[in-house]
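Cross-posting from the modeling subforum.

Setting up a comparison between two proteins and wanted a second pair of eyes on the formatting. Protein 1 (sequence, then structure tokens):
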Amino acid sequence: MGEQKGRVAGLLPIGVFLVLFLGVGLVTRDFYSMPAIVAFLIALTVAFLQNREYSFQEKLHIIAEGVGDDNIITMCLIYLAAGAFSGAVTAAGGVDSTVNLGLTLLPSGIVVAGLMIIGCFISVSMGTSMGTIGALAPIAVGISEKTGFSMAICIGAVVSGAMFGDNLSMISDTTIAAVRTQGCEMRDKFKENFLLVLPAAILAVIGYICLTRGSSFQLEGTYAYHIWQVVPYLLVLVGALAGVNVFVVLLVGTVASLLAGVGTGSLALGECFQVMGNGITSMYDITVISMIVACIVALVKRNGGITCILHLIHSRIHGKKGAQLGIAFLSLLVDMATANNTIAIVMAGPIAREISEDYEIDPKRTASILDIFTSAAQGLIPYGAQILLAAGQTGLSPIAILPYVFYPILMLVSVLLIMLIRRD
């Protein structure tokens, strides 16, 4: 019976990580003062010290099996390939061209809603909410100053657009983690995910239009763009939706970005390998963290920790609907504790997969729930990197921005309603 219920002690490494990460953050009032990798390494040390039934060599074998899992290896390789594409397309001027193209095409009367729409496209294309906020925040500040609209409304629209792509992009680290931990295809997850969040996105855009209706202004200056610099994003998006292998898609996108950059003069031929290297390097942290978390999860599982969580969840939920709500609640809590939705997915993913297998939930739905609820939480916690960056770019407090981050709020509400009313 004890084996069926698992062992609470097996969860000690996860508890140590949360206490360290949250404790240091609360004491210093900076949730990024404790590097996640350091906290995870300490937690891994604790996991090694547990359970004397296994020798040190046997524990090394256990974690090697955990890291060597097909999904973990594939996830790490995709991270690096996505980093190469991101570095190449950014250096080639893809971000600036996409922003300027959006500002040129959108009517000035819906400029604030337009910030969200542009943010949606950039974040889906780039796969990074932080990069989207960094690119659009200065434009949001200028629009606020010229129109008289609240700075909080303008930057709230930017954050909403950024979180849209963070949750949906084919090359977002959150999407990669959600798909690989659940063993499903990106295209299938995208379709499931998109239908769930589309109502929230539409309502958010309508909300920004209603708040700023009746206003219009003309953007000053020239917003130059090269359509060829936008093409790599479109190739990646279309290729991923068409079901082309993700490595092929990212390779084609990277080559197209380098050709566009060299062809338009924004990138020197000799810089091509350097910008790819910079992009790959930017993914080192999440790649190493994913491997360390896989080690911890392997030991926690062998020590009965995962079984303990599953027993606790099984005792409180019934049926597919309850299981999905359980995964959603688990995702929210882990993201609120870690303040990083990718790490939250990597940590909660193995548990969610066990639940989905027990209740016969489609892997693409589980991946969508993981990604949606961690992204929604990430866009709403005042100590999350996205809100802190938006606050730093505008001089506002995080609390002042949160009421205008419509999309994550509506995403939570709409997806929960769909989950409750949809038949199993």
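Protein 2 (same layout):
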Amino acid sequence: MNKISVVGLGPGHPDYILPKALSVIAQSDIIIAGKRNLESIDISGKSTFIVGNNLSQMIEFIKENRNSKRISVVVSGDTGFYSMLRYLKRHFDAEELEVITGISSMQYMFARIGQSWEDSYLASLHGRENRFVEKVKEYDKVGLLTDNKWTPDRIATELLINGIDKKIMYVGENLSYENEKITRGSIEEFTEKREYHICVVVISNE
């Protein structure tokens, strides 16, 4: 029985896709991924399954095809950082999966602002509630994946309400793409409301 490959695609730009990931994708018969990820790789001659809110259908599709086809589930960033891997492990044993790491957007963001991240608190606010204010008080550095609800301006406002105003905030948008934008400023400077896409926020003492 073929193993199911779970492949991290990196932060977005093809330059940051690891050679091992490209090799596994090239050897696959079926690619399962979100639409944007499919646009970042060569899928010529391969069958595809576009992932949306159809996760149960995805699992059935994998089970129906894995015996005869080599399948790769391609995820954004790194496989071990808020990816599809946790969900897949509810349905398949670890021995059934081949996991290919990638570069997470969080790794990329810390590199771009020239900071280490081994001593940071890292979390995702994407569709989740998180007590990040307490973590910002506790840690010198906090990295957050945002969503359309917890935007940088709302995060900054929440920090100010809770008396946090001395730290530096970084906001990374469209990371690794040509239109990448990384902004550095005080907490107060980011309270002004404007339109953000999903981005990475780092709150630091530095």
